[in-house]
Amino acid sequence: MSELLYLDHNATTPIDPCVRDAMLPWLENEFGNPSSVYSLGRRAAAAMNGARDQVASLVGARASEIIFNSCGTEATNTAILSAIAIDPDKRHIITSAVEHSATIKLCEYLATRGYEITWLPVDSGGQLDPDDLESAITPETAVVSLLWANNETGVIFPIEEIAAITARKKVPLHLDAVQAAGKVPIDLETLGAQYASLSAHKLYAPKGVGALYVNRRARYTPMLRGSQEETKRGGTQNVASIVAFGKAAELAEAHLLTAAERIASLRDCFEQTLLSTVEGVRRNGTDEPRLPNTSNLTFAGIEAETALLLFDKEGLCCSAGSACSSGSINPSHVLTAMGVTRDEARASLRFSLGRTTTEAEINRALEIIPRIVARLRSAQPAGGSPVHITS
Ligand code: PLP
């Protein structure tokens, strides 16, 4: 078995040992329900509130504006459903063509319930034009929901301009900050968005815990009703994972600038080497503004899904910008929205570096990738479509 070479940190991250240590007591002796009045429960509540401070600090929010929940997807669903429930007469939602499925699937569903959805386009660099947003807003618009940073390309949307427009037009703004948090500085207080989604497992904490930021002046109605989280999200809290989320947020904040600089320099070296030494490689997405850890590349003539299987044999984990469904490979909606052809999209790979990625690992990746790409290309008949390698 080859040594793991993990370049898929936008999919999920390993749990940081300090995060694991912080959560362990809450899986063992400290098992109290944070709503219980005796000290075992009060300690759990206090630990959870410490985590609330830590998460709030990472994103420039107040602790009272952080609602813990199960994941980024829940946060996004809650924000959009809250906004439309508050203004039931407004039946128009604005989002973009390159959102995460958490937003897309909900908006597609709401379209079947009579909502009009505007899918804002992006340019060939994956960038959104704020003027398009401005002109899409109507008196019927209930909410604008947009990514802070794209999970496939790392492209960062013009968040300040977007927030200024929605503030001027008095339309609630939800930002999916799941990929941005911990990778770039976030100051929600200054920005003035009404809602933001966060997820712990992109931050070196466990899966199954997230948070919704709701600005204290924003109108809000919960999706899950119950007494927890001051009635803003029902369900007994996952204390151990919330404590882990808090610790992860504290570490992310402490390391943010130094980690971003180090990771960006490794990513740039990785990307430049492939672009300059392997023929037929192209980057998808603008160079800047972009997350420091993400590189999305098209390798002309290969089939990304097959590359993933061959990489896996060498321990290398990354993602294809496509999903296999019922035997057919659907090209990434993000790349096709950027004007990338379906064939090019099927030949695209996303590499996402992390806090523990080393120069030695990048060098190993730079040895593996060109070799596998050459193998895939040599297996392709001249002028034909890529061959599936089954070994
Ligand atoms: N939004 C973005 C941009 C993501 O990348 C993800 C996860 O991949 C999510 C939302 C969903 O987060 P979760 O996995 O916590 O539901």
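^ pyridoxal-5'-phosphate complex. The CA atoms of residues 176 and 244 lie 21 Å apart. The two ends are 16 Å apart (CA to CA).
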